[in-house]
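Design job #97: recover the sequence.
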């Protein structure tokens, strides 16, 4: 799966995988040596306030005597040295929107990675990024012309990072970027894309060789994420729309839903969500009557004839890939349906309407496809049965196990 965040810290580097982390002694290149007794749990060792980072973090960035950590829409600034948790500066956590004030909605729901780069810093949000000129304290100045598309600005090989990255690590004249189970090493200066070193991308697990887990004292509970550190699982998701892509907001919906699902699953479940493909079905007259889709009672194992007809369209999707169908309306049963994960056997998928009210709608419906039921106890949880969860949604330990044991998930 890879890692959710990485932090340069002088002679040490830190890597975060859900609620665990490792500390590594290394130079500019190579995996280095994981320090004894790691992995450790983030909450026990870093002791951040207000529950910050208990389930993992999205990004971390070195900045001299300060370090920044990002979790969903919040961040903290920490004063520290090369090793140890340091001290959270007064007044943190803060919201990204209040502290950084990035343009064009960038970072509205959080970021995926941050990269220190001398006088510049880079922040990544889904398929976009910004370059920032550093000052003494945030907010720093976003350089003109940003945000830009990662694909246009960095031009990484083999589709690497096209839909976003999970972590970035400064390392002197080298930088490392992580995208699911793969990573690249780049030779570069303070600004610009630099040059990807020969032989990359490479697999994370094979090259970094992080330990699976460390011995824990009897009084310390084992974390729920028992996959090998940096390992985890992979699921695939594709999108097909009965609404025209060229004249609607569907492309923006797909970007938002995929980015939030990917970020959440990496941070809390150790699952990398691989982006498959997008197909515009709106021009097919044989499917137009399905734009208002009959879903019946939306009960597992009971797809309607219309769901069977629509879900048979799986062009370019792998057998175990979840296909999300975007329609104009869902009809049937009782209640106001935003999505329904009822699907025919052997055709895993869900149907949703283009609702921007919940950025985790696809993650919720995909959870059903992976075997998760509704949660009736807390609106803080991803599988809450109501219309909208409290951000960021939580994934319970037993749900993580169910997702990873699903026949649609496979080891990274």
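Job complete. Output follows.
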């Amino acid at each position: 799966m890879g890692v959710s965040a990485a932090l340069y810290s002088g002679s040490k580097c830190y890597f975060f995988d859900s609620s665990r982390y490792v500390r590594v002694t290394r130079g500019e290149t190579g995996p280095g040596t994981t320090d004894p007794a790691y992995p450790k749990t983030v909450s026990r060792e870093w002791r951040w306030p207000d529950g910050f980072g208990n389930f993992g973090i999205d990004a971390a960035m070195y900045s001299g005597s300060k370090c920044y950590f990002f979790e969903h829409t919040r961040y903290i600034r920490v004063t520290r040295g090369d090793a140890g948790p340091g001290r959270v500066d007064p007044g943190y956590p803060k919201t990204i929107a209040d502290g950084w004030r990035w343009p064009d909605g960038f970072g509205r729901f959080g970021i995926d990675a941050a990269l220190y780069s001398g006088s510049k810093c880079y922040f990544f949000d889904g398929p976009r990024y910004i370059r920032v000129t550093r000052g003494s304290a945030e907010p720093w100045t976003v350089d003109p012309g940003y945000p830009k598309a990662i694909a246009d600005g960095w031009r990484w090989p083999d589709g690497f990072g096209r839909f976003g990255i999970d972590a970035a690590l400064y390392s002197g004249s080298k930088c490392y970027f992580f995208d699911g189970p793969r990573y690249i090493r780049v030779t570069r200066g303070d600004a610009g894309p630099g040059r990807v070193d020969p032989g990359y991308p490479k697999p994370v697990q094979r090259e970094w060789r992080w330990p699976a887990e460390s011995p824990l004292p009897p009084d310390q509970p084992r974390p729920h994420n028992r996959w090998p550190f940096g390992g985890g699982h992979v699921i695939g998701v594709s999108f097909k729309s009965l609404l025209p892509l060229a004249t609607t907001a569907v492309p923006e919906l797909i970007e938002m839903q995929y980015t939030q699902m990917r970020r959440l699953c990496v941070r809390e479940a150790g699952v990398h969500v691989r982006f498959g493909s997008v197909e515009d079905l709106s021009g097919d007259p044989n499917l137009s009557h399905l734009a208002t889709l009959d879903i019946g009672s939306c009960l597992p194992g009971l797809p309607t004839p219309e769901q069977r007809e629509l879900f048979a369209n799986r062009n370019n999707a792998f057998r175990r890939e979840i296909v999300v169908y975007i329609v104009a309306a869902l009809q049937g049963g009782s209640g106001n349906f935003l999505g329904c994960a009822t699907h025919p056997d052997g055709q895993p998928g869900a149907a949703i309407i283009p609702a921007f009210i919940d950025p985790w709608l696809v993650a919720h419906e995909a959870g059903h496809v992976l075997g998760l039921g509704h949660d009736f106890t807390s609106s803080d949880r991803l599988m809450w049965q109501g219309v909208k969860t409290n951000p960021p949604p939580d994934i319970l330990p037993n749900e993580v196990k169910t997702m990873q044991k699903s026949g649609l998930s496979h080891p990274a």
